[in-house]
Amino acid sequence: MGVTEGQQVGGIRSFLPAVEGMRACAAMGVVVTHVAFQTGHSTGVDGRLFGRFDLAVAVFFALSGFLLWRGHAAAARGLAPRPRTGHYLRSRAIRIMPAYVVAVVVILTLLPDSNHASPTVWLANLTLTQIYVPLTLTGGLTQMWSLSVEVGFYLALPVLALLARRLPTGARVPAIASVAVLSFAWAWVPVFLLDSRTWNNPLDWPPAFFSWFAAGMLLAEWVHSGVGFPVRLARRRVPMAVIAVAAYLVAASPLAGPAGLAVGSPAQFAVKTAMGAVVAFALVAPLVLDRPDTPHRLLGSTTMVTLGRWSYGLFIWHLAALDMVFPVLGTFAFTGRMPSVLVLTLIFGWAIAAVSYGLVESPCREALRRWEKRHRSTRAPQVTDAEADAIAP
Fold first, then answer.
1. 276-319: per-residue pLDDT in tens?
2. Fewer Cβ close by (within 10 Å): the C or N end of the chain?
3. Are 276 and 55 in contact (CB under 8 A)?
4. Mean pLDDT across the stretch 317-336?
5. Which phi and psi (to 5°) does residue 167 adopt?
6. CB-based burial of residue 21 (10 Å sphere; 0-12 exposed, 13-18 middle, 19+ buried)?
7. Helix or strand or coil: residue 84?
8. Which of 326, 270, 312 is nearest to 139 (CA)?
9. Which candidate, 208, 217, 147, places its Cα nearest to that of 177?
10. Model confidence over 208-258: pLDDT tens digits?
C-alpha cells in the first residue's frame, strides 16, 4: 500500500542534493581521522575525539544502505518495479572498480611505502579481498578495508532483498532491526571460532558492520511508510543533533575502547559499532525523512554537491595525498602540525579526486549507460535505477 501525497517525504526523490553534501562531509571526516593519527594526535582527549571521526565510515555505509535498499522497499509496497539485479551489479562494478584499480596500480607502483609489494598484496588489493588475507593492508591503501566491507554488502544485497520479499511488508522493519542488533554479537565470534594466523582480523568483516548498513535500510523502509514516529523524530533537527553528538561522545569514551588504533574488548567493540549506527542514523535521517520541500542550504549547495560527486576520489586517494604533504611541509609523520597538514591534504586530495572523476569515474559510468541503452530489450521495462548510480564509497 502506498502513501498519500501529504504523507510523502523528501527521500522519495530520485536525486537528493543534501545526501551528496553529506557524502562530502563523510569523506572529509575520514581524512580528519587519518591526518590526526599521522600527526600524533592519537592519545588523550584530542586523540579520542579526532579518532572517532572514523565513524564517518558508518555514515557512508548508512547512505549505501538507504540508496540501494530504497528501490526494494518501494517494490515491496507495489510503488515501483523491482530493481534489476543485472543492472545493479554492473553499475556497482563500474562505479567502484575503474577508479579503484587506477589508484591501486599507481600507489603500489609509485608510493615509497608500497612499491615493493608482493604478488599476494597486489592480488588481494586488486580484488578487494585484503580484509580477509593477512598482511595485505599496505601503505597508502589501508583505508580500503571499508571499501572491501562495502563490496561485501553489495554482493549480499540481492540475497537480502530476496529473503525480505518473503516477509509481510509490516515485518520488514522488525526483521532488519533484529538482524542489526544480532550483528553486535559478531564482536565475540572471532575470539572463539577463528584462527588469526589463517585469517585477517574478522572484526573488519562485513557482518561486524551490518548495523551501519541497516540504519540506512530502515530509513529506506520508512521513506515509503507514511509519516509515523520515525519521520516526526527525524524532522526535529535539534533533538537529532543532540542524539548524534551524545552517541559520538560515547563512542569516543573508554566505554567504546582505547584511543588510537588499539582494539578493545568485544563489549567495547560492540558499543562503538552501536554508537556508529546511531550517529549515522541521526545524521542521515533528517536528510531523507524531511518534507519534500525542505531546503538544505549548506549540504544541498552547488559546492557541496560537487564535492559529493568527487568524494569517492578523495576517499581512495587521500592517504597518498597525505604522504605527499609531509615532504612539501618539510616535516615527518607523528611530529604535529595537524592544521597545515590537514589543509594541504584536503587541497591535494580534492584536486586528485576531481581528476579521477573527470577522467575515469564519469566516462566509465557514461559508457555503461550507452552500453545498456544499446542492449536493452524493447520488451524490458524502461526503469532507471537511480539508487545504483548514486552511492557512497
1. 999 999 999 999 999 888 889 999 999 999 999 999 999 999 99
2. N
3. yes
4. 93
5. -95, 150
6. buried
7. coil
8. 326
9. 217
10. 999 999 999 999 999 998 888 999 999 999 999 999 999 999 999 999 998
Cell numbers describing residue 366:
557514461
Cα dist from 196 to 135, 149, 187, whole Å = 11, 18, 14
Residue 197 near residue 46, CB atoms below 8 Å = no
Side chain identity, residue 272: K
Residue 261 has what DSSP assignment?
T
Helix, strand, coil in percent for the chain, rounding step 5: 70, 0, 30
Count, residues in the chain: 393
Which region among 114-123, 146-155, 171-180 has the lowest average model confidence (pLDDT)? 114-123
Per-residue H/E/C for 349-382 = HHHHHHHHHHHHHHHHHHHHHHHHHHHCCCCCCC
Which amino acid does the sequence have at 389?
A: D
Find the mean pLDDT for residues 192-202.
Answer: 62
Triad 297, 225, 19: Cα angle to 5°? 25
Grid coordinates of 3: 502513501
